[in-house]
Structures are given as C-alpha cells and as structure tokens.
Amino acid sequence: MKKVLIALAGFAVFAGVAVTYVVSARGDGPAENAVPVVTGQSMALDGRSLYFRNVAKGPDFGKLAAVPRTAPTAARKVGDLRCDRYAVARGTGVCLSVKQGSLPPVTDLLVLGPDQAVRHRETLPGTPSRARVSSDGKIVYWTLFVSGDSYSATGFSTRSGLYEVQTGQLVKTIEELAVFISGRRYFARDANFWGITFGADGNRFYATLGSKGKTYLIETDYKRYRGEAILENVECPSLSPDGKRIAFKQKVSDGVWRLAVVDLASRTVTQLAETRSVDDQPLWRDDSTILYALRRDGDASDVWSVPANGAGTPTLLIPDASSPAYG
Amino acid sequence: MYLASSRAADSGGPATGSTALRWRRVSGNVVALGLVSLVTDISSEMVTAILPLYLVLGLGLNPLQFGLLDGLYAGATAVLRLVGGYAADRWHRLKTVAGVGYGLSAICKLGLILAGSSVAGIGAVLAVDRAGKGIRTAPRDALISLSSKPETLGRSFGVHRALDTAGAFLGPLVAMGVLWVSLGDYGSVFVTSFCIACFGVLLLVVAVRDKVRTHRASGIPLRAMFALLGGRSFRRMCGWAALLGLVTITDSFVYLALQRRWDISSTLFPLLPLGTTGVFLLLAVPLGRIADRFGRWRVFVGGHLALVICLVLVCGPVGGPLSIIGALALHGIFYAATDGVLPAAAGPLLPEDLRASGLALLQTGQALARMASAVLFGLAWTLWDLGPSLVVTAGLLVVVTIAAAVVKPWEARG
C-alpha cells in the first residue's frame, strides 16, 4: 500500500512538473517583435524587394518578409505566409514549410506565382533544407532531410527533387540519376544528393553527391538524365548569373565549412573573405556579390554579403533573417 | 549441470500459484519490469521521433554530419552490455545496476536541453543514453528470467516485450501531443520525456523486487563470466545465435527492399516499421507461450524460417499489396519468435548468480553478429545490387536455419 502511494505521489509530482513546463512554454513567445515590422502587407513580387525569412523573435517569427533592395535595414514588411525556406526567380517562388506536429515530419512544398498566391502544392516527407528556382522561373527544386531511410535511429539522408512549373512534371528524388565518377558508373547505397542549381538553359544543372564520406560536384544533363562528377569537396553549389562560376561551401573539418567560388573553365578555387563557418547554399546577388545566412548564438541567424572575388570583407545585410531571395 | 542447479534454486521463487487466474500466471515482478520498460520506452521513443525535426529546424544543424557520429556508438554499447551484466552479478545487485542504466538515460533527456546546439554536446548526450540502455539490458533480462518459473519463461519474456513495444508505439503519439499543446516547443518534449523517464525509474525502485541470490563465498571473478562458455549447451547456444545473427538481414534493409520493390511512397515509408512492431506487439505473448509448450528452440528456429519466407516474398515473383502485408507480418513474427524467446531459452542454462553475465554474453554476441551482417549486406548490395543480395542472404539463412534445426544444440526439455 505504501509503495502504491509512493508511486502515485511520484506520478503526481512528475506529471505536475511536465504540465507546468509545457504550459509555461506556451506563453513563452514574446508578444512584440524584436525588430520593427510592418504587418499585413501584400507580398506580391515588385522587382524592387529583397525577400527573406524573418527570424527576429516575436509573433511574426518564421514569416516571409521583404525590404527594399536599396534599404535592407528598413522596417520589414511581412505577410501571412510562413516558410522555413524560400526562393524566387522570374515571377516563380518556392516555399518549404514543415507541417506542424507531423511525425515523422512532412513538408508542404508551395509553388507561388508573382502575386505570391499558391499555384501548386505538394506534400513531401522530410524537413526543409534547401530551395531554389531556376533563373528562367520554370523549374523549382529543393532538398529535404529525411529520417527513416537509414540504418540507425538518428541517421539522416537527403532527398532532392524538382518540379517543372509549366508541365507539372514532378521528380520526387533525383536519386535514380546515372552518375559517373572518373568515367565509371557509380553505385552506392549511401548516395545522397543535395543543393541543386540550374543553368540558364534550363537543362544543365549541378548538385552535390555525398557518399562514403566524400562529396562531389555533379554536372548533369537534365534531358539525358546523367551526371558526371567534376570536382570533390564541393557542397551546396550555386551557379553565377553568367554561368561561369559556382559558389559553394567547402568542408574544412567536421562541421566547419568555408565559402568559396570555383571558375568552371579553369577550375581555380577562390576562398571568400568570410572566415566563419557557413552552412547554407550561397546566393548570387549579381556577378560580383554573394549572400548567405550565417548562424549566430545557436539558433539565431543573419543574412550577410561578401564579394565573390575573395577580396573585401563580409557585411551584415539583414539581421535576424535567413533564406535571402531576389524576386 | 547448470540446468539442474538453476532449476532447484528457482523452485523457491515467487512465481504465482497454479490457482491464480490464467492471465496472472506471470510473476508480478515481470509485469512490473514490463511496465518500467513501457514507461521508459514512451520517454525514449518520443525523443527519437522528434530528434530529426529538432536538429534540422530547431537548431539548423546539418544532420548528415551528425549521422556520422551514430555508427560509432553501436560497438561501445555492446561492450557496456557486458559490463552491466558482469557488475550486476559481481555485486549481486541486478536491480541497482538496471536502475543506474535507466537513470542515466533519464538524465540524458535534460542533457539534450543543456547541450543546446553543440553537435559534440548532443553526440555525447546520445552516447550516454545508449550507454544507459546497454548497461540495463542484461540485468533486467536476468531479473525477468529469475522471477519466472522455468517452464513459463517464454511467456514472461513475451509479456515483457509486448509491454515494451506498447511503449514504443505510444512514444511518438505522446511527442506529437506535447508538440501540439506546447505550440511546437521542443524543450517541452524533452522535459516531458525526462519526467516520464523519472517515473519509470521510480516504478523500478518501488515496484520491482531484486532477487536475493545465494552469495558465493568470494566475489565472482571476471573469468567466471567467460567460463560460462565452457558449458557445452550455453556455448553452442551463443554460437548458433551469433551464426544466425550473421545471416540475418537487418530491419532497415528489409524496409528499404520493400520500398524499392514496390516503389512505396516516401510518405508511407515510415509506416513500414509500424507494421512489424504491430505484429510483434500482438504475437509476443502467444508465441512466448507456444515456445514454453513446444520448445523455445523450435520457435526460435521457426522465427528464422518466417524471416526466410518474408525475404522470398520481398524478392519473389508475386507482386501486389498482399505481399507487402505478408512480408511485414512475417517480419513481425520473426521478432516475436526470437527477441524474447532467446533469453527465455538461455535462462535455464545459466546458474542464478551468473545469469546477467550470461545473458549479456549471449546478446552481445548476437548484436555484434547482426552489426557485421549489416555491413556485409551493404557491401553485397553495392557490389551485386539488391535482388541478388537478397537471394544470397535468404539462401544462407535457409542453410544455417536448417542446420540449427537439425543439430538441435541446446534445449534439454522438448
């Protein structure tokens, strides 16, 4: 009897602690935005804005935001759309948004029109990692982290896919891509693809292949659906607007990456002036500047800018932001 | 010799009398241990379920990096299992050592909050969590074994594994509920998980009785543990378990093969393991009872035959959704017929005061063999592609299973 009482009392205590914590966590969110925010705005693409994910603490955390390109520190406009990753080009936007409370996690992929209205919706397994739109606005592509594929409880793998906006063709994963390394067809059960970037012709694209502890830059012919490894230790490639260079993150040691740019013709690699570890797919603002999100104090993040030629110094562009995009 | 001595010792055990109700024919201690496992599994599975979300979205970590840490722990856990088993026997403290294991894992839930976004920190916390699991397994199984009458061991382990699995089922649901109520706060999930784990430890402390065993005059030397392998029946059992483990395909490959074969949508993919555990949950007790009646050895071997048929379905010519359901059901039968049945079969072969050590040896051998099997299968898959690898594995499994059935190595009682 005494034991039953102890067990019941213990249960009451532990349940009490848990409930108190959960309830207090509910009310934990700050009621005011940490930075000036103008809410309830139309987020239609206007050709003059820089878009990003607002990660300033407050009720508008996680919403798509915009500032004038000429005044990135101005008060940010926000609408109602929440995205974990966002990208835009030529009137086509893509928003990856994880479904709250879905276990295993599921992501809503939203293809957006020039007015930011949803033109197509796709639900895919995994958590958002990367998203981009081809420069002609015809193809959107993404990378999701998926668990459950792998051989241990905490193992992950990536799954990259693409969607042709005009034809509606969906490729859920590019894993079936025929890949050649040093001229030989490559097979491995641990092959993962991430970080796609399309050329202006809408056919040639680049992606990262990770396998057996190595990463390769794969150059791919989309129509023939075959790719070839052209460089090692290149992750999250991003093709320059002139199509001649690729910005990427280069692994320095475990968990530490540096931004670099490679010239495709000469294969010369230039490390950029940013010396901190960057875990993001870089974005070309124009042929000479690169934008990227940089994590700060754990889960906070800012958008920075650095020259693409290795000179200069990084500049803080938008504090409390991630997923920069030009529309 | 072991058989006789352990049975004599067991007859004084607290198993319920034959007048008790049918469903009560499992010792209260086993039910208590099962409940502790149920509560602990809710706690650990809720964390496992949200970890990917937490790492990627909550912390913005690159999980690929993180996944690399994972493989390192499996080996360490195997060694700790031996340490836990030996320590429990050495100091005659099954419950205490199991409690330390449960406690370590409970503390880790808070550790996840403290670790923040440091990859090394999270890696360390998960390592300690696994260490806890490694330490507690052998003393816990020894307690189940010592709390049961020798003739109902299969049922006892069946009841324990069923309760354990029920907890694993509930974990993700609880996590989802907490995330929903807390408006997506991961800290709440960890704190809730910690509280549930603490309750599990408390249950262990108040509801589970330790088995007071006849002390040996001197402490048990480490070599007594390995001397167990001198016992012919037990050595053979370890050998067969390891050999069968070596030709057994691991879970994830079964699911991956199913996924490839039928091109299962990746949204449905995570449901495949639920099919297996569901069948396991339903059949753990019935198969444990069948094992008690018709021989644990036969059921254990039969479980491997079920896996063979499962593999044949996976790579065989017949398509259609019925084959998937059949394959998952057979995979569940394989688990129900082997997971609890093996320690049940081993119990009577081990002397009381070395039972935790013996079970640790047996299960460590099996676990290491399965690890090796996973590596080999991965290699075969890369070299020959999926189909041929499955056929070869199924073939090897048939050969070893038949050999194990014919040689009939250990069980004294039919």
From TrEMBL, chain A:
Write the protein's name: TolB-like translocation protein
List the SUPFAM superfamilies hit by this protein, alphabetically.
DPP6 N-terminal domain-like
A matching Pfam family: PD40
Automatic annotation (TrEMBL), chain B:
Gene3D superfamilies named among the record's database cross-references: MFS general substrate transporter like domains
Q: Is Heme there in the keyword field?
A: no
Q: Give the Major facilitator superfamily (MFS) profile domain ranges.
A: 219-414
Instruction: Report the PROSITE patterns cross-referenced here.
Output: MFS
Question: Would you tell me the Gene Ontology cellular component terms?
Answer: plasma membrane
Principal cellular location given in the protein's record: membrane
Compartment list: Cell membrane
Q: Which UniProt keywords apply?
A: Membrane, Transmembrane, Transmembrane helix
A Pfam family it matches: MFS_1
Q: Is Membrane a UniProt keyword of this protein? A: yes
How is this protein positioned relative to the membrane? Multi-pass membrane protein
SUPFAM superfamilies with a match to the protein in the record: MFS general substrate transporter (SSF103473)
One of the entry's Gene Ontology molecular-function terms is:
transmembrane transporter activity
Alphabetized PANTHER family for the sequence? C-METHYLTRANSFERASE, MAJOR FACILITATOR SUPERFAMILY TRANSPORTER
Name of this protein: MFS transporter
Q: Which organism is it from?
A: Kribbella qitaiheensis
Kindly list the organism's lineage: Bacteria, Bacillati, Actinomycetota, Actinomycetes, Propionibacteriales
